Amino acid sequence: MRISWAVSLTAWVLVFMKIDPEKSGMAGLTLFYVSTLLFLSSTFVLMLTWIWRKFQKDEDLAMAYVGVSFRQGILLAILTVVLLILQQNRMLTWWDSALSVAGIFLVELYFLTKK
After folding, report:
1. Euclidean distance between CA atoms 62 and 70, whole angstroms
2. Domain ranges (residues) in the chain
3. For a Cys staple, 62 with which of 48, 53, 58, 67, CB 3.0–4.6 Å?
4. What is the reported pTM?
């Protein structure tokens, strides 16, 4: 997971430094948002896995939550990218943010109660 984080960080930094969004158009924006999604999801997955390991005394039980951390990390990254896209288009308001958070929360609740 740390290797994928380092690769996604490198890709994000390269896209951030080398691509001009005004000149590259839709392809540059797509590369930016995809690299941001990958970087944020790997960052959130690592952070959430670390949190689970920190609060669980049993190592086996903490490792059982890697799948949960993976899903939650991806959902948080999707939320962040959606908010970035709304902000870029000057459509981000507090109720759009609240609805986006509520939507991600409902998706997570679905997965938590799906047993």
Report:
1. 13
2. 2-113
3. 53
4. 0.91
